Amino acid sequence: MDDIFNALILLSNFVIVPGMAYGSQLAIGALGVTLVFGILRFSNFAHGDTMAFGTMATILFTWLLQGWGVSIKPLPTALLALPFGIACTVALLLLTDRWIYRFYRRQRAAPIVFLIASVGVMFILNGLVRFIIGPNDQRFADGERFIMKAREFKRLTGLSEGVAFKTSQGLTILTALIVAIVLFWFLNRTRAGKSMRAYSDNEDLALLSGINPERVVLITWTITAALATIAGVLYGLDKSFKPFTYFQLLLPIFASAIVGGLGNPLGAIAGGFVVAFSEVTITYAYRKFLAYAIPGDWAPEGLVQLLSTDYKFAVSFLILVLVLLLRPTGIFGGRTA
Amino acid sequence: MKRILFATAMAALASTAMGAMVQAETIKLGVILGYTGPIESLTPDMAAGAELAIKEVSKSGALLGGAKVIAVRGDTTCIDSAAAIATTERLVTSDRINAIVGGDCSGVTTAMLQNVALANGIVMVSPSATSPALSTIKDNGLFFRTAPSDARQGQVLTAVLQDKGVKSAALTYTNNDYGKGLANSIKTNFEKAGGKITISAAHEDGKGDYTAEVGALAAAGGEVLIVAGYLNQGGKGIIQAALDTGAFETFVLPDGMIGDSLPKDIGSDLNGSYGTVPGTDSPGAIKFSEMAKAAGFKAGPFTSESYDAAALIMLAMQAAGSSQSKMFKDKIMGVANAPGIKIYPGELAKALKILKDGGEIDYVGASAVELIGAGESAGNYREILVSGGKNTTARFR
What are the CA-CA distances from residue A235 to residues A27, A177, B231 (Å)? Predict the structure, then answer.
């Protein structure tokens, strides 16, 4: 019986817990991408670097707070700095909209023009973040690191495998849940949310029924900024902050949004978990798991690993290609550009 | 007859002129290191080490009857072979350097050797290229290094593991020339000694998360995890993820992982881990670190090797009586090894005088130089034990 528990715990430690946390981070990121796509109608390539910018702003405020000796132990100080980080990112996105996207919106430019403009914004943000905080790793997690340590778990249960549950992982999963609930409530129940959906369905009709398009745009960017910053900070707390990794995150985030169906918030969340779990389950080596799960003393010779971990990003690509081939509108049926 | 007389007179004149020129000769040494790029934090002190030796010799006025030696710096970038070749080409053909202290990283060093040094017959002495591939490369006797090959580190690490009674280990390495070479050497040596490497897996630097990599390493199992990576890069990420998930508790750290920042970043969980880094307890090392302090730089990684590289070149010139690479290349092994009077840092003037009088020297220098094989340092290592949140020296090997 112990063997079965050991097998399950081993899997939780290396697959389920990290997969849940990574999936939540991707889901919040993909929500931002899908929102911009659904309402402003373009693929925002600057989203990864918006996350980096928001995280950077939060880190700077975290350091300030730490310098003042403010802390909310056992939770990380970054949570306290998060609202300030979001405010900075909102200001940044509204400025980019004012200076760049508004011009194209007035010209009623094609989505591809917006997309290319967003690539330009991406490079500028890329440089801006490196200019302010530098290209190196920054660690800003403080407070209690673990909810449950692997060693403690082994001691408590007497099993030979342990499961580690980091504070950042718990926070990530919890925050993702709250963010998703609040967002759906906002989109479905509030006046502003409804006007956003109306604008998304038909811009001209929305205008005729008295919805102010600039206000919808403003709200969309504000929410996107909040989502990007939250996703970025959670990722940074869980792993570490480095501008380049945020740039790389763009691929799995887009894969998540597209898998779920671009423009569909529910799809974005599901997509996030699909991509995260595919990456983790395909690159995990099942040798030890099988040794526990299969009765007797037999253990496989090889590692029983489907793909080397080097191919992690290839998994996102593969899912993206498969979905686009088989169900171009995504699993949950979004729109096509 | 008249014509022959004239020619003889001219030749005599020319030779006197040449003699005069030798008197006032200015020797140029290229100090070609990666002043920009991944190891840019190390190279300023390395160059300062080489230039310390150059100044010492130049000031003594004892080299080849009072020759002045000046350093010409050039950038290898550590990773961009094309840039390193262009720099070296420029220094050799337009600055007319007599020899090279450099390059630094194994990849660019190979490129510089094959594309410029071989073609122009210029001696290269690298203070820091450690790839085993450089031991067997075709070099026409022009390439030397005061850094040991990573093949040697594999032997030393194996000895450490055996002393600790480790029978099986998992191994992960950074995915580049350094990581692959070192990992191969560790695996071969450890398995030859009867140990078992359960898995040898690469990791990419600069990723946010290493849980998946650690998952594979943990599945393979092993008493310890050998991390042949960089302490500010993936190596640290792997250790952190392994500790977080409880996959491994003891880590074996080769030279790329030794630095003050690692025990500080990881914290008390790293206590009990151990590793190796080039180093020596010879009196030369202490002398050199005092000299470095007086000259205003820190005797950090590869600085003593840089001093020794420059010193060896100039001592070989003295032994050969010529500053031409093709003349003094055969003398480098002679001045570096026994027999002869032992020479420590700061005694270069004494060494030059001994050589001038026809004596023999055994250059020990700052890093206890002993050239073996095709002209590379035999390698002295410091065994490190992480204890109390610090890297401490367990012993020398």
Answer: 11, 15, 22
